[in-house]
Amino acid sequence: MSAEPTTKVTPSSLGPDSEGSPGASSVTQGSGHRDDYGSRLGMWLFLVTEMVLFGGLFIAYSYMRYRYPVEFHHGGGELNATLGVINTLVLLTSSLTVVLAIVAIQRSEKGRAMVFLGSTLVLGLTFLVIKSFEWGAKFHHGLYPNAPHLATLPPGEQVFFGLYFTMTGLHGLHVIAGLSVLSVMLWWVATDRIRQDRYIHLENSGLYWHLVDVIWIFLLPLFYLAA
Amino acid sequence: MSTHAATAQPSYLVDTGSRKGLMAWLTTTDHKRIGLLYLYAMSIFFLIAMGIGFVMRLVQLTSYQKLITAQTYNALFTVHGVIMIFLFVIPGLSAVFGNFFLPILIGAKDVSFPRLNLASWYFFMAGAILAVLSLFTGGGAPDTGWSFYAPFSLKTGTNVSLAVFAAFVLGFSSMLTGINFITTIHRLRAPGMHWFRMPLFCWAVYSTAWIQILATPIVAITLVLVILERFFGIGVFDPAKGGDPLLYQHLFWIYSHPAVYIMILPAMGAITEIIPTFAKRTIFGYKAIAFSSMAIAGVGSLVWAHHMFTSGMSGMALMLFSLLTMIVAVPSAVKVFNWVGTLYKGSIDFQPPLLFALTFIFLFCIGGLTGVMQGALAVNVHVHDTYFIVGHFHYVMFGGTGMAFFAALLYWFPKMWGRMYSKAAIYASWFPIFIGFNLLYFGMLILGLMGMPRRYYVHLPQFHTMHVVATVGSWFLVLGLLLFFGTLLYAILWGEKAEDNPWGGVTLEWSLPSPPIQENFEEIPTITHGPYEFERLEGKS
Amino acid sequence: MDWMNQAAISAQKSDAVFFYVFGLSVAFLIFITVLMIYFVIRYSKKRHPKAEQIEGHVGLEIVWTSIPLVLFLSIFYYGWTNYEYMSQAPRDAMAVKVTARQWSWSFEYPNGKQSKVLFAPLGKPMKMEVRSVDVVHGFFIPSFRLKIDAMPARTNTTWFQATKPGSYDIECTVICGVDHSLMLSKVIVVPEEEFKAWYFGGEEAPEPGKSFRTAEAHPDLQGLAPGLAVLTAKGCLACHSVDGKPKVGPTLKALYGKEEQILIAGVAKTIRVDDAYLRRFITNPMDQQVRGYPPAMPQTALTEQELNDVVRYIKTLN
Amino acid sequence: MSEHVEPASEHATEHPGYGTFIKVWLLLLILTGCLVGVSHLGQTYAVWGLLTLTPLKAGLVFYFFMHLKYEGPLFKVVVLVTLGTLLIFFALLFSDVAFH
Ligand code: HEA
Ligand code: HEA
Ligand code: CUA
Ligand SMILES: [Cu+2]
Q: Which residue's C-alpha comes closest to atom 1 of ligand 3?
């Protein structure tokens, strides 16, 4: 849900008569003119809240890691680093395709833009599939919160897996949110609601997607490479 | 003022769209109407929570202990605290007066994202409804206090999960409002309205908005962790699984201390508007006040652990946080002195809003100074979690934010509704409010020093006398508040028509008709001077 | 000086800082309030029809930024140094393990002795090692200005050195559930010899706290009301006053007919004190517990006649 | 809006092309490789890798993919303030944990 308010709402800065005059003399007044810069500012401020949201989790993580260095080392050993790295590459690439889609739109290459956006969606889904395999394996081994097996492990490892599921889970939710938003963007590109002179929504959705990528960039070494 | 006679646009209170009546209000994107929506909703919550406060005082008379069990009492102060904090003082001035006046004060027609603004209100209402639901569903009303300390909040059978989720949703509303206001101030200032020509209320709302977006997400994630902990047992806060209750306290206060500045900054901003208007002179030390708002927002984010001095933190942390706590008090002091300085050599027109503004200064000083006492380590060990704290925060939250809310309401009332209230009735209500307030909360300060712990259903006999004093104080307070709200309610419905500029103010809102027209300005004004230039007015008349 | 029952060195340290801040606060509050009122009167519209537009004064801003800053820093420093003293137990302090649970306190001394009330020798440092077995609690002795949270899975320490014999409240300050406000106990400060007699004495050693209280009680039984004579002889007055002062146990004054909260097997009930209750309580004190008091009353054998006298005497105290 | 620091609503600079972003992407892949490599060298290296390479990667995404490079100063300030705040939260929190 997180990305929606901003993206949904940005159109409101486009008044009924905003279509025609991108280069209006006074930049932004009232509801009568479109303010792309303002929309991007709003989006960035929203990203600020997302950064701090995950920041809180990173704070919790480092606090606990400081308390339980050995257990976190062990916990990290249980995770599948290869899958983690593959998923990193997948997400990085999906990030690339989003910016490329924007470049394409800027050049009025609608077809290409749709291909790029489509690949982003595919890559995002790939990420989720890999992720679900990974979670499935953990569940299989009884390494999930409240599992009888986990309860036999030292406290620090229980915390490690608690954090692992919380942080990757929350990240996963963000991936799903991002994919939903990007699907809408794909549709809008297809129906020409996003085009060369008007692509702020795509841009903002892209920003969101990149942030999701950045968060993963941090999750990789914290969990998968911790051992 | 005659220029407005021929305004083409109708007042914002008149429905012009296709929707009429309630529907027109519930779908509005007009920042003024949204401000009022907040105000009406909030007033109801405020009255309920005050009613609960009143009942808690009766319990302390011990005569009502048959009606209210210990469990109910624990639920009462939790609900009282949650409503007051999350539904009243945090959104408080920012959502009501910020929404209504921020765009007007900077010469804009609306906020940057009007629909997001309405969405924030719906989030607010959703959070409120969830909070109310949490009282009657699951294991019953939460009994942990508004701070939801783990591991008690993880173990109690009461409906903490839903209450915490409600707080999460309310936090979301608060963040969205913050995003909106920052963007609005950056993008929608009228031509010529550069930063140092903004009225100081805008600076206050701006710095508040920054705290809203930088601190709120931390509490959001903390509350999510509590929910996950309760449902799935992730073990981050539960010592049985290796978690750490201290981590919970850190995360909770990282937000909840800055939150107290979310409460007070817009309140200070409103006071800064009121004093020059009635002193008929420019504010003393514009930049000092503007920067102190930013300083409070900045340093205020660095003092959270002063709520945890007895929790067993490291000596290093104790020292640092006590030091930072002292530093954050400085900008507040600067503001107080500048307000007093603004009265100097003014030409003071004594009116109800000024009376409440000065009452604010007095009560806030008591609250702030007791805050400084608590910030001193050696004293904190004694007063922590006693009624001294309860006294402190009622002084700053009720005497501070609450009184400023009242003052702002009195000040902008004629503008918002185009009607005037009975000044005599307001003056009359001030006496019981002031006397009752101090009996009630100064009584609490003394109780705290005597060693009365907070959140106690029953107290030891040596505390009884002071508890009686405090309870009697609450009766005076009720009397005054009923008169106060009654007067305003009467005025909204039947008050006489107000002038466009009843107080002789010079900020932009007073150049509009009362009530303002739908898009605020027929034509966006061009600003050529600072916000409080009273000579210009004199020159004209 | 006896400000609010100041009974330990930590209390003196804390109060010193309090008075320093309090003095400054009162001075500033009066200064600001008086100035405000004076300006409102002196520069009212009538007396001063034309306002002067003073935009500010850099010098003044600097003054009223730096003076409070310096004062605040001094408050910090004073508060911190005194706190350092209050929190660092001296090496020779006797370490007592304090255990909090929903909803009671227990104390364990280095030699393994345990008690429900805390016994402490006068003028000797006592170190508190505070833990909790369930949720967070707060260990608070108001008369010592001493507080430390009882955390699960973590031990917090503090210490005190009592300066006055007597019995002082211990309260729980962190909300910990329905009986949070019943989680009370006492600390009993006695001269060192008496403490030692108990501490080194065997199982049977009498609990400390008698000496300073028997001193108050009547030594001479002759001419006393029969009930009072029994109370004195059986040592009840060690813990109960007949004049309304709270001691280890509740006062017996005005007890009869009073409504009270008692806990039976942990469940709170409100009862009215009558003959039957008094008899039951005195003969079997461990079966129930009075709210606000530790379950510390020893069972004492009384004859039926003595019991009658005591009950009759308690009735006369109304 | 005369004295505004913010640029007008249009991108002031030329839009970068496909090439730039592909180069950045390659760099990101390489850095990820380095990070994995370094983490095999032992605990200390892994931590140092984490502390240097990860922010570098995040920085690249912010700077190029998220167009910070092409935006005015305001957005950079916003990001810096956020990161600064988080950093201070970390530091102050560790004044507790690290000195026990
Ligand atoms: C509106 C809300 C608000 C505001 C503005 C403040 C302002 C301050 N608060 Fe308060 N506080 C709360 C709301 C607020 N607080 C709440 C809700 C709690 C309890 C939460 C809970 O546990 O439930 C709390 C608790 C609390 C504690 C923790 C107590 C404890 O639990 O142990 C502390 C400790 O340091 C503290 C300190 C301060 C300080 C130093 C300020 C400063 O900002 C005050 C600055 C102002 C002044 C100092 C006055 C003006 C200055 C002068 C007149 C200058 C001259 C003075 C001198 C030179 C001395 N507060
Ligand atoms: C802005 C915030 C705010 C305000 C205005 C108030 C207002 C009041 N508060 Fe509140 N209070 C808090 C915020 C606030 N409080 C918080 C955050 C806590 C901490 C909770 C916790 O521990 O977790 C707290 C805790 C708290 C306690 C401590 C409980 C405890 O620790 O045991 C008490 C005790 O008396 C109390 C009393 C009151 C009273 C008597 C009022 C009075 O001012 C109210 C005056 C008004 C009236 C008396 C009613 C007037 C109106 C009517 C009569 C209308 C009738 C309506 C109905 C009948 C529905 N409050
Ligand atoms: Cu134990 Cu409160
Ligand atoms: Cu605080």
A: C137
